[in-house]
Specification:
elongated; mainly beta; single chain
Length: 72
């Protein structure tokens, strides 16, 4: 015999939905010209604190600025 009082509740369509948090991350840009076309030519994935270090060059022909990029 099946006891209906111990059956688990199934979610209904009318159940309220939880809203998830939105996290935004700014896109890396060249500090000289503000361009977003960047080429990474060397990197260290984990520096021991969870951050990543990359050596980057701006691909804008008029710029070509080289810089380091730290991502936490």
């Amino acid at each position: 015999m099946i006891d209906d009082t111990t059956a688990t509740a199934t979610p209904t369509r009318d159940a309220p939905r939880r809203m998830l948090e939105t996290v935004t991350v700014d896109r890396p840009r060249c500090p000289k010209c503000g361009g977003v076309l960047l080429r990474k030519y060397r990197s260290i994935r984990d520096q021991g604190d969870g951050s990543a270090l990359s050596w980057v060059r701006c691909m804008n022909e008029a710029c070509g600025h080289r810089f380091r990029l730290v991502q936490e």
